[in-house]
Amino acid sequence: MTSRGLLLCGLVMVAGPAAADDGAKTTQAKQLYLQGVELTEWGQFREAIVAFEKSQALVPRAKTVYQIATCERLLGMLTRARRDYQRALVFNAATDGADIPKEVVSDVQALLTVLEKRIARIHVTVFPEHAAVAVDGAPLEIAGLLAGESVLVAHTQPPGPGAWTPVGPFVVELDPGTHVLLVSAPGYTASGQSVTVETGQVTSATITLSAAPITLSASPGPVASGGGRRVTFGFVFAGASVALLGSGVYFGLRALRRDDEAASHCLRGFCDAKGVSLGANARRSARIANFAFEFGLASAALSTYLFVSSTRVAVQPVVGAGGGGLALSGVW
Fold first, then answer.
1. What is the pLDDT of residue 106?
2. DSSP state of 233
3. Pairing of strands 120-127, 202-208
4. Domain's final residue, options 65, 91, 116
């Protein structure tokens, strides 16, 4: 920490404007702040951040955010340090610079320039677009645009699932080191990729997700033992369709014979009693044949459905050197 930083630790708490309500909350915030200062001097930066954050939750102050940013910078948490230094400056300006001395403000502005050069950047292209991306188990924070590309910042959000990315290539700003990029999207197999970036390095990465296998089940319920009840009913309707179709053939042929016999008893559209009787018999047989054919075909279709729906079918995309397709497999 610079001498000015230490001066801020020791003096601003005294020189800062007094709170209107100097009650128990303010007293506790001061104690936590001073605890953070002591931990920082001992190099216990993570513990110091905890103390400063508790103090900030009680009484928000620009100088407390500055101390948090300083500890983050010393821990190598560059993107978080940049964010919190910027917050400290905005907070300080809102209080007319009453919390942070002007010389420290100048130091912070210089530090922000250095941090911009030290932060690593990855130009990322993902397929499908709008996939969810997480870095080291936390979502990215959208920061704006850089040369027409969306800028997403890592390590500034709490742990959680990946956030949806903008359409098209985007830039990920992250701390130097080794990190894990996890990309996921509905209907695709998630992909985790380890990347190592050096201080200030600018690199690129393309991540393409593979389509996830699709499993289709033609039967929503469990299949009973012995082929299942659907198979049993399938055989019943198959037998019925055979009997009905057979009856349709029989009565159809009978209708043709009766019609031929009736023709011999008719002349120029006039029929004798025998011809009238044979004609009526032919029409009755034809109606029975039509009924048998219709219900026989319906039974055949129903039995086919029952047989097919008693199977389980799996569909697996297959990609090879000579092309692609779908692989089908089924189980009775």
1. 93
2. H
3. parallel
4. 116
